[in-house]
Amino acid sequence: MTQFSRESIRPIAIIPAEAALGAEVRCGRLQSIDDTIFGEIRQAWLDNLVLLFRDQTLSDAQFLEFGRRFGPLKSAAAADSHNELHVVSNVHVDGLPIGIQGHGEIVWHSDMVSFSKPPAASLLHAIVIPPSGGDTSFSNMYVAYDTLPKALKRKLAGLTLKHEVSPDSAESGTGASHPLVCTHPDTGCNALFLGSRFNTCINELPRHESDILLEFLWLHATQPEFVWRHRWRVGDLVVWDNRCLLHRREAFASNARRILLRTQVEAGEPPRIAADALERPVHRRGLALIGR
Ligand code: SIN
């Protein structure tokens, strides 16, 4: 019989998904992990962009505590609330919604890009999941950048994207502007930062040129080869890096119930592009797709 010493049994296993991003982490109960294990989780998150932990049963406080290990949590946007916990749900109780975002499709986006400092991370914990639909997909924006032609990378390095503009007047926009390519503060690699498909325009280009370029970039960035699709189970906890991926959610039946808890981690700094961005190394996740 094989003998295992205590040291040979690793308390954490990281299993990359067969996709351009994503990994499942097996490390037992998240409320019991120590700082060494969390260090490995954080590195796995930077390496894989999105992590899945199965079979978790965290109280609200434990969920927030786990989120806080990634950094300070964002408070809810509502001025009268400092709550760091949000409910993502279509369920109504006594005629009132218990959460946000309903049952419809949520198209590709990064979270809260119209703010000057969009969150660094978002976490979702599944409490009730419908029998079908409501899957969440993630697309790798490092690989989206790294697979572009060199001449286009040079062009994009000088461009910024304004968010929440009206269809005909960029001046009326209320959202922040961010570089179209951002250099990740922790990995040092470049990622496309498209944020939101609608109501955006490139500040430095005439509107029709901006629309054509954005149409191309969105088609490129959401191609199936760059995507990992997650089918939820009750107890799943997913944490993603909002600075280097897009995500979308599929619709589900309006009479089905879906309840997830969400919290978001503040970014230390606004999105930036490094002065030497064109010399930066490629991110290794999804390397197989580069140079196809
Ligand atoms: C979101 O887009 O933040 C929600 C994702 C989901 O409901 O799965």
Automatic annotation (TrEMBL):
<keyword id="KW-0560">Oxidoreductase</keyword>
<feature type="domain" description="TauD/TfdA-like">
    <location>
        <begin position="19"/>
        <end position="263"/>
    </location>
</feature>
<protein>
    <submittedName>
        <fullName>TauD/TfdA family dioxygenase</fullName>
    </submittedName>
</protein>
<dbReference type="GO" id="GO:0000908">
    <property type="term" value="F:taurine dioxygenase activity"/>
</dbReference>
<dbReference type="InterPro" id="IPR051323">
    <property type="entry name" value="AtsK-like"/>
</dbReference>
<dbReference type="InterPro" id="IPR003819">
    <property type="entry name" value="TauD/TfdA-like"/>
</dbReference>
<dbReference type="GO" id="GO:0006790">
    <property type="term" value="P:sulfur compound metabolic process"/>
</dbReference>
<comment type="similarity">
    <text>Belongs to the TfdA dioxygenase family.</text>
</comment>
<dbReference type="Pfam" id="PF02668">
    <property type="entry name" value="TauD"/>
</dbReference>
<keyword id="KW-0223">Dioxygenase</keyword>
<dbReference type="InterPro" id="IPR042098">
    <property type="entry name" value="TauD-like_sf"/>
</dbReference>
<keyword id="KW-0408">Iron</keyword>
<dbReference type="GO" id="GO:0046872">
    <property type="term" value="F:metal ion binding"/>
</dbReference>
<keyword id="KW-0479">Metal-binding</keyword>
<dbReference type="GO" id="GO:0005737">
    <property type="term" value="C:cytoplasm"/>
</dbReference>
